Amino acid sequence: MEIHTYEKLWLALALVLIVGFIGTITYGAAGVGIEMIDDEGGTVDPATLDDHPKFGDPGVEKTGENSYDVYVVARQFVFEPGTTQPIRVPEGSTVTFYVTAADVIHGFNVVGTNANTMAIPGQVAKFTVEFDEAGEYGLVCNEYCGSGHHVMEGKLVVMEQSEFDSWYEQQQQEGSN
Amino acid sequence: MATASGPARTFVDRFPSEAGVIKANLLVSFVALGIGAFFGLVQALHRTDILRVIDSADYYTMLTGHGVLLAIVFTIFFLTGFFHWATARSLDRPAVSTLYSWAWFGLMTTGTVLATIAILGGLVPNLGISADVLFTFYAPLQAHPIFYIGLAMFIVGTWLAGADWFLSYRAWRSDNKGERIPLQMFMVLTTMIMWYLATLGVAVSVVFFLIPWSLGLIPSVNPLLTRTLFWYFGHPIVYFWLMPAYMMWYTILPKLSGGRLFSDPLARVVFLLFLLLSTPVGIHHQYLDPGIAEGFKFIAMTNTMFLLLPSLLTAFTAVASMEHGARQRGGEGYLRWLGALPWRDPAFTGMALAGILFAAGGFSGMINAGMNINYLIHNTLWVPGHFHLTVGTAVALTMMAGSYWLVPQLTGTKLYSRPIGLLQVIMWFVGMVFMSNAMHRAGLAGIPRRTAEPQYQNFEFLTPIGSIFELRVQIALGGTLLFLSVVLFLFNILLTSLGEESDRPVDEYLPEPLSGPEGSPRVLDNLGLWTGIAVVLVILAYTLPLAGIIQNGGGLFGGGLPIPATVSAGLDFVTTLVTTTVNTLLEVAA
């Protein structure tokens, strides 16, 4: 088959570019350790979410010295927690999110960051985020979920450790009463 | 007889029945373009808060209309018309049965009308018919059954259209044993094989799950399963849009430039690569989906990156063919030959400008494809910014520009106005530069797509350069220019079709390529072999993810989402029986 010399050169460069892209992405995944959302979070029955040990009363839970789990339910058109009450975590912590949807497919994005996942009924999205500094972030549903999609938002507050501790203690006491 | 006609006679004189079918296809396509573009204008002004004439809840109805009418109806009816033209032209023979051609056109049109009624019903309160589910119709968002039924009829119509072209090819083959498949016919056939393979996903999703569910026959669906089946179809459809544009860049653009196609064999290789790689990549739209293991996402990413290859090869061929044309026209120098190209011809200029923006869209697509960097822009305005460069310009502008050359062959009348045509394609280019660069930048600032009012209480979006207000103005201005460009296009085509008949309305002769098919291996034309490999690649990419989704996600029909429908006990029993059996089989198989 007759291929022009310049075209051969172009073909070779194109292949180098492609292999280069795959290489950098592989490095990002394996070397830098950027985790993908995958099937690790498992599944959940969306019809009985209210009876679920975690999603029945979603929120923040301390799991170790500096580590926390946050359970979030997305439903038309709120995040629980996130919308009426902000999600609160302490600075310098490692937080694992478990996000699911109660009705239709939603998105869960910490605005301006790569903490971004789809929330699909029946599936649990699990991902880990490190919060270095205190501050406030917006939460936004970035998948169309119905006529009120544009009002579905929330807030995530990264608190100073002492402030968080007293808030968390108060929550625990209220919960046990 | 067709064989007696030389290239000097107009297409409509040689194939009057085919021309009629093609014109009907283009008519539906262009009506959809007009309505869809109008919705686009309303959206561009609404979401930027420049002008809000509709309720924000109706925004999503219009967005569904915009997506379906432009991405499905405009593009695919243009494709069916164009492929019908290319089949008759490249084989130099009429279709096997005109009645059959009208039958598939009728089925596609009926399906389109049903789906459009379902969508527009959303604008009429108390009608009880709506389909505010957007172009992707992710369950459990539910549309009226006629939306899904219309969609199914439309898809089946395209299958029958493909059969029409395969029948023409078979008839040609029996008269031309041992000859190479004419290039345009080859492109039609490979594109349609890809389409048959790709539409299986959406057909299964719609027929087995969404139609029964919307009729209340089954209580629920597995949302991740129907979503995955959508994207099984939803990525290759991108190439279904693109292949008519590529066909024009390969077979018409070189002629418009004043030259000839650079290489016939490599054009065949490119179309075969699209047949092989278009489908086993759909999971790259689901990088952020739970329930799909990282390994499957990695496979989809790798396949996607290799899909860059045929597009990069096309970029080379398109530019090389244009340079050849320019030099034939007396162009010289390293870059000065660019000035020798026929920039006053709207068909040429439109395609060339479409190619330039496609290169930009290709680069933003590489970001989308990069599975970890994608986290930053997934579901932001970056994504519509990207596909308004690809389907919205590479495809749409090429189709409009191509129409300036194609429509006179079908009507037998000269193009009404070349200057207006030129203004139209330049307006599209300028409008899209404003709109898409601002959309990409807004996406980097985190502004979500598919949102009526991206203005929130808890936070503000920040952009490192410029301001959010400036981005909004650019989007609104770009959207307005794009709408006006469509108005000019429709006006020009309408007046062309009303014009006086001419003996030679346009120069339709397409010269042979510089390197013909003779030198290329005959295995390129072995369509059975390539179809087989394409099927194997799809099986490899999809079997395990689909099995996992069905097994872990509560079976074929999901985990009992509450649905406001009464289900008879008998049907319930059958559904349970089927689900249990399939689940048991899957467990045994695993």
Automatic annotation (TrEMBL), chain A:
Domain of life: Archaea
Any GO CC annotation of this UniProt entry: membrane
Residue ranges crossing the lipid bilayer per the database entry: 9-30
Gene3D superfamilies referenced in this protein's UniProt entry, alphabetically: Cupredoxins - blue copper proteins
Cited Pfam families: COX2
Residue ranges annotated for the Cytochrome oxidase subunit II copper A binding domain, each copy included: 65-170
A GO MF term: cytochrome-c oxidase activity
Subcellular location: Cell envelope
UniProt entry keywords in alphabetical sequence: Copper, Membrane, Metal-binding, Transmembrane, Transmembrane helix
This protein's name: Cytochrome C oxidase subunit II
Organism: Haloferax profundi
UniProtKB/TrEMBL annotation, chain B:
Keywords: Electron transport, Heme, Iron, Membrane, Metal-binding, Respiratory chain, Transmembrane, Transmembrane helix, Transport
Any one GO cellular component localisation term in the record: membrane
Transmembrane stretches, start-end: 24-45, 65-87, 99-125, 145-167, 188-211, 231-253, 265-285, 305-326, 347-367, 387-407, 419-439, 475-495, 527-550
Topology term for the membrane: Multi-pass membrane protein
Keyword Hydrolase: no
Origin: domain of life: Archaea
GO biological process: aerobic respiration
Boundaries of every Cytochrome oxidase subunit I profile domain copy: 26-524
Pfam families: COX1 (PF00115)
Annotated GO MF terms: cytochrome-c oxidase activity; heme binding
Protein name: Cytochrome C oxidase subunit I
